[in-house]
Amino acid sequence: VIVQVAETTNYRAALLNRMLLALTASEVFLVLTVATLVFLAVGWGLLPLANLRREVEARNSEPDMNFAPLPLSLIPQEALPFVSAFNTLLNHVETAFQTLRRFTSDASHQLRAPLAVVRTHVELLIRHSANSPEQRDTISDIYHAVNALQHLMAQLISLAKAERPLEKTDETDNFDLVECTAATARNYATDALKENMTLSFDTACSELIVLGNPIFASEMIANLLDNAIRYGERGGHISICLPDDSGLLEIEDDGPGISPADRERVFERFFRLPRNEDRKGSGLGLSIVQALGRRMGATVSLKSTDRGKGLKVVIQFQLVA
After folding, report:
1. Burial class (CB in 10 A: 0-12, 13-18, 19+), 65
2. Parallel, antiparallel, or unpaired: how do β-strands 237-242 and 248-253 relate?
3. What is the H or E stretch that residue 172 is in?
4. 3-class secondary structure, 176
């Protein structure tokens, strides 16, 4: 018996190609599966570090500096020494910042007392001096210098309060913006009259409760009124307005105004416009206003008046829910 089995070379080549294709497909599937599993495993393993990165990014977007230690509960063992060392560094930075803040505040308070004494004695010398005009001019220059220095000390204290980091014990107060604005405006009515300027206060409501600190809000309004009297047009008008119950406060003056190109720079510390270099001032007023507003969640913006002359300062306070 003779049995003969045969196959064509084309069939054998086709069978080889099918085997190679199936092997290639399985290897590609295996590689993709391994890559996916590795990607998911690495992402799951690095998830605590991603959460830590989001925590740091969230602190960068906060208006106030936050030196609280980073959480260690979800940090992997490999990164724990680094995060612990970073928390120690944050603690040292917070300690140094608090020391500097206390020094600035204490120094400002310590300087106010001797300045008040010097001012009192200079006033007595001016009142009872009958010497030469040169001596009276010298005493007058000393008096104005002491006044300027005392004003600068008060502004530095306000700036130190505004830029103090928020603490857990700090609570947001509610206050009547109408009453606070009216009380502050009454304190500056006499100063406006001395410069032959009129001061008006218009409100659309008898009471408007907003979020914030009434002392900080009063300092904001006081700095804006001081700037309006200092740089406004002599014989002009200063207008304070609460146009509605939305928490909007507007203060306008008849001064030269601020160009749009300089409206961001005037919020910088000690920045003064070239035209105001010969006038009294420290360049801290608007910086204090912005810092105090940021602390209370209020926004401050500078706009042109409807008359095209002067400056309008708009403060948007947060309403009580």
Report:
1. middle
2. antiparallel
3. none
4. strand
- Residue 58 tokens read as 């969230």
Query: Which letter does DSSP use for residue 259 in this model?
Result: -
Q: Which residue in 258, 296, 279 sits closest to 164, CA to CA? A: 296
Helix ranges, the chain (H): 9-45, 47-60, 80-128, 133-162, 177-194, 214-231, 285-296
Q: In a 3-state reduction of DSSP, which class is residue 262?
A: helix
Q: Which residues contact 290 (CB under 8 A, 6 or more apart)?
A: 267, 300
Run of H or E residues at 76: none
Mean pLDDT for the chain overall: 80
Cα 21 to chain centroid distance, Å, stands at 65
- Report the C-alpha gap between 313 and 223 in whole angstroms: 11
Q: Are 136 and 123 in contact (CB under 8 A)?
A: no
The 10s digit of each residue's pLDDT in 267-289 is 887 777 766 666 666 677 788 88
Nearest Cα residue to 75 out of 49, 101, 54:
49
Q: Count the Cβ atoms, other than its own, within 10 Å of residue 293.
A: 21
Residue 30 to residue 187: CA distance in whole angstroms: 81
Q: The dihedral of CA 159, 165, 168, 173: what is its sign? A: positive
Per-residue burial over 142-167, b = 16 or more CB atoms within 10 Å of its CB, e = otherwise: bbeebeebbbbbbbbbbbbbbbbbee
Provide Rg for the chain, Cα atoms: 34
Q: Please state, in angstroms and rounded to a whole number, the distance separating the CA atoms of residues 257 and 311.
A: 5
Give the confidence band of 63 by pLDDT, cuts at 50, 70, 90. Answer: low
Q: The tokens of 170 are what?
A: 């700090």
